[in-house]
Amino acid sequence: MNLRVMTTEDLPQVEAIQARLTRQPVPQPWKDMLAEHVDQEHRLGIVATQDDEVFAFILGEIKIGGFGTELSGWLELVGVDPEHMGSGIGAALAQALFDTLAQRGVAEVFTSVRWDMGDMLAFFKKIGFDQSPFINLAHSTGKQE
Ligand SMILES: CC(C)(COP(=O)(O)OP(=O)(O)OC[C@H]1O[C@@H](n2cnc3c(N)ncnc32)[C@H](O)[C@@H]1OP(=O)(O)O)[C@@H](O)C(=O)NCCC(=O)NCCS
Q1: Domain holding 111: CATH number?
Q2: pLDDT of 9 over the 70 cut
Q3: Could you tell me if the CB of 21 is within 6 A of ligand 1?
């Protein structure tokens, strides 16, 4: 397994993994969001590959001046192809993200998880995440979904 920075050439394979995980076609706004993680100073993607095949990805972001800190890192999304789950790839990708964020000056990494996604919560706890001092709040804009 090789971990490396995500490139434009990887995007179709990352989209295919996302489609497999969500069991639906990947919408264009998701593809656009993904493409915004290539060659960016404050966003990044890392992929796990073997023989040029991408089988997992992680996306992260650096926020500036948010939450009372100078720089904060965010683990935005992580996805491992179902055939490769449970062999340490998610944990390795998270560590690669932490290392890259540290190189870019980030001391602390946050993430957010749906309260009813017990598997993701268990994964995050296993790799060392703990409750943050913040709570997420939500407010409707009034737009009908
Ligand atoms: C969650 C996910 C990223 C974990 O990646 P992975 O490569 O399968 O996990 P790892 O093998 O690195 O596991 C690391 C640790 O987390 C634990 N873990 C992983 N998945 C878990 C799960 N579903 N439930 C409980 N614990 C889990 C492992 O047991 C392991 O613990 P250990 O160190 O004691 O052995 C991956 O399974 C995945 O992509 N799931 C689907 C996510 C998804 O639906 N994404 C789309 C919407 S965000």
Answers
A1: 3.40.630.30
A2: yes
A3: yes
